[in-house]
Write a structure and sequence with these properties.
The protein is built from nine helices and five strands, in the order E-H-E-H-H-H-E-H-H-E-H-H-E-H. By secondary structure, the protein is α/β, with parallel strands linked by helices. Helix 7 (133-139) crosses helix 8 (149-161).
């Protein structure tokens, strides 16, 4: 099964992926974590670009969209081999939905994001961790250009629009880590039909 945690910077994706990994492993599942961007050469280039103050300009957002799509293609086989499995679970802190939410300026259409990511398998389950951008900013380390209150507000709204897609649910990331993790686990157990 391919499970993705999504949400704006500061919602706790990395923390919850780590908790989830330990919990699923303790239940006997074969679990692997994915991180976007990856450690591929393309992923390294993306990480470098994310610290560039100019990354939120129109052209740089278009370039970033293409780079993320290319980086995801390096994961295609791994994702395809795990999809719909009840024994093997792949958990990721992002997916192509991140591109839809983050590359949100007027020069980039959602259709184009879908087109450039059309060969990437879709998640079996997407959990959007939702948090007020003011709270999210307090949790961030301030190293990424995207950690900006106005940008995060717009991105959060883009994530909310994604809730119309199948197998996509929202979990409030405001409560304690243990409460949020409990909700995530409950959703996954339901998906696994346990």
């Amino acid at each position: 099964m391919y499970i993705v945690l999504e949400g704006i910077d500061g919602v706790g994706k990395t923390t919850h992926i780590n908790y989830l990994y330990q919990w699923l492993e303790s239940r006997g599942y074969t679990v692997e974590k994915l991180v976007e961007p990856t450690d591929s050469e393309i992923g390294k280039l993306i990480r470098k670009q994310l610290t560039n103050p100019e990354i939120i300009t129109e052209t740089n957002q278009q370039i970033l969209s293409l780079l993320f799509a290319a980086d995801r293609l390096t994961l295609k086989k791994k994702i395809a081999n795990t999809k719909n499995s009840k024994e093997k679970i792949l958990i990721s802190d992002r997916s192509f939905y991140s591109s839809i939410a983050y590359q949100n300026n007027e020069s980039i259409s959602k259709d184009w994001i879908y087109d450039i990511n059309k060969y990437i398998p879709r998640p079996d389950l997407t959990i959007i961790l939702d948090l007020d951008p003011k709270d999210a900013i307090r949790r961030c380390d301030g190293t990424d250009t995207f950690e900006n209150i106005n940008f995060l507000k717009k991105t959060r709204n883009s994530y909310k629009k994604l809730l119309k897609y199948p197998n996509t649910i929202k979990i409030d990331a405001t409560p304690s880590k243990s409460e949020v993790q409990e909700e995530i686990q409950k959703v996954i157990l339901e998906k696994l039909n346990i």
